[in-house]
C-alpha cells in the first residue's frame, strides 16, 4: 500500500485525561504503510481543566485551536476541517474523525486503511468501538429504520449512516459531500452527514473488528436525570447538547419524511410525560 497522508480532526472540552489518552494512542499506531503522515487538528472549546496546555506540552505536533465554550462538537469539527485545508498545508488523502474519548487499538489506523483498500476507492470506513469492560459495541455504523448498531463480523459490513466517533473519509468524499452541515452545532451532524453520503451514491462500511474503546455516556443524565421537573427537563432536551428544536426539525425533514411532523414533537412530549409521572414512595 502506498504512503498516505491523514488529517485527524478532533474537538475537545474539559476531558484532559481522555484527550491525552486518545492522542497517545494515535501517536502509537503501528503497521502503517511506510512514510504515512498523520497530522492532527484539535479544536478545544474553552476547556478550564488545562486540556490545551497539556496537549501542547505532550504533543507539540498537534495543531490546537482554542475557541469559546459556545462551540460544540459538530461546529468544532468543521473548524478543524477548515484548518486541515488551510492554504499552505500539504494535501491529505483522508480525513479521520476521532472523538476525544476514543482510545484506539494499536493497529486501528492500519485496520481502517486495510478496510478502505478492501472495499475500494472512494468509500467511507466507520470504525466500530467497544466498551472498556467488555466487547459490547458502543458506537459504529447504523443501519435500517431503527438505526441499529452495525456489529463487526470479521468482514466489512455496509451501513446507512454512522456515529462520528471514528470515521475515515477519503478526500474525494469530502470534496463531494462537504463537512458536517452548518445547521448542526453538536449532535445529529454525524448522522446527517452519513445520510448525505448515502444520497450522493457513496457507500459506507464498518470495519471487520473493533478499532478502539469508547464507553457510552451515562444513561440517566441530561433531560433523563431522575427527579427533575418538567420545565427543567424540557430546557435540557431543547438545549444544544440534546435536541434543539430547529436543528431537530431540519433533521426530521431531511431524513424522516413523511413521519417528520410526528417525530418532531415526539421526544419533547415523551420527556414532559415522563417527568410528569410521579412514582409513589417506597412502601406507599
Secondary structure layout:
Layout: E1 5-12, H1 16-27, E2 37-45, H2 51-58, E3 63-67, H3 73-84, E4 94-98, E5 103-104, H4 108-119, E6 124-130, E7 137-139, E8 141-143, E9 148-149, E10 157-159, E11 161-162, E12 166-170, H5 171-177, H6 189-199, E13 204-213, H7 230-237, H8 245-255, H9 260-276
Question: Can you describe this structure?
Answer:
This protein is of the alpha/beta class. 35% of the residues lie in helices and 23% in strands. It has helices spanning 16-27, 51-58, 73-84, 108-119, 171-177, 189-199, 230-237, 245-255, 260-276; strands spanning 5-12, 37-45, 63-67, 94-98, 103-104, 124-130, 137-139, 141-143, 148-149, 157-159, 161-162, 166-170, 204-213. Strand 2 (37-45), helix 2 (51-58) and strand 3 (63-67) form a beta-alpha-beta unit. Helix 1 (16-27) packs parallel to helix 2, helix 7 runs antiparallel to helix 9 and helix 8 (245-255) crosses helix 9 (260-276). The termini are far apart. Residues 279-284 have low confidence and may be disordered.
Tags for this model:
single chain, 3-stranded antiparallel β-sheet, alpha/beta, disordered C terminus
Briefly say what this structure is.
This protein has 284 residues and is of the alpha/beta class. It has nine helices and 13 strands.
Amino acid at each position: 500500500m502506498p504512503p498516505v497522508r491523514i488529517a485527524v480532526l478532533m474537538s475537545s472540552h474539559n476531558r484532559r485525561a481522555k484527550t491525552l489518552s486518545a492522542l497517545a494512542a494515535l501517536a502509537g499506531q503501528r503497521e502503517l504503510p511506510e512514510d504515512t503522515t498523520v497530522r492532527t487538528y484539535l479544536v478545544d472549546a474553552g476547556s478550564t481543566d488545562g486540556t490545551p496546555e497539556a496537549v501542547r506540552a505532550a504533543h507539540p505536533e498537534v495543531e490546537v485551536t482554542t475557541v469559546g465554550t459556545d462551540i460544540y462538537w459538530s461546529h468544532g469539527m468543521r473548524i478543524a476541517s477548515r484548518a486541515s485545508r488551510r492554504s499552505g498545508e500539504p494535501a491529505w488523502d483522508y480525513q479521520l474523525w476521532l472523538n476525544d474519548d476514543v482510545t484506539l487499538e494499536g493497529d486501528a489506523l492500519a485496520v481502517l486503511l486495510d478496510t478502505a483498500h478492501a472495499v475500494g476507492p472512494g468509500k467511507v470506513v466507520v470504525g466500530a468501538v467497544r466498551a472498556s469492560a467488555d466487547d459490547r459495541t458502543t458506537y459504529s455504523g447504523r443501519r435500517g429504520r431503527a438505526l441499529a448498531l452495525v456489529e463487526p463480523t470479521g468482514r466489512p459490513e455496509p451501513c446507512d449512516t454512522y456515529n462520528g466517533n471514528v470515521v475515515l473519509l477519503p478526500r474525494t468524499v469530502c470534496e463531494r459531500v462537504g463537512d458536517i452541515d452548518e445547521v448542526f452545532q453538536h449532535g445529529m451532524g454525524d448522522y446527517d452527514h452519513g445520510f448525505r453520503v448515502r444520497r450522493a451514491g457513496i457507500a459506507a462500511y464498518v470495519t471487520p473488528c473493533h478499532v478502539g474503546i469508547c464507553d457510552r455516556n451515562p444513561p440517566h443524565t441530561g433531560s433523563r436525570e431522575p427527579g427533575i421537573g418538567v420545565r427543567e427537563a424540557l430546557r435540557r432536551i431543547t438545549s444544544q447538547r440534546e435536541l434543539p428544536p430547529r436543528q431537530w426539525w431540519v433533521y426530521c425533514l431531511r431524513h424522516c419524511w413523511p413521519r417528520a411532523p410526528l417525530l418532531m414533537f415526539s421526544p419533547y412530549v415523551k420527556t414532559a410525560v415522563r417527568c410528569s409521572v410521579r412514582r409513589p414512595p417506597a412502601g406507599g
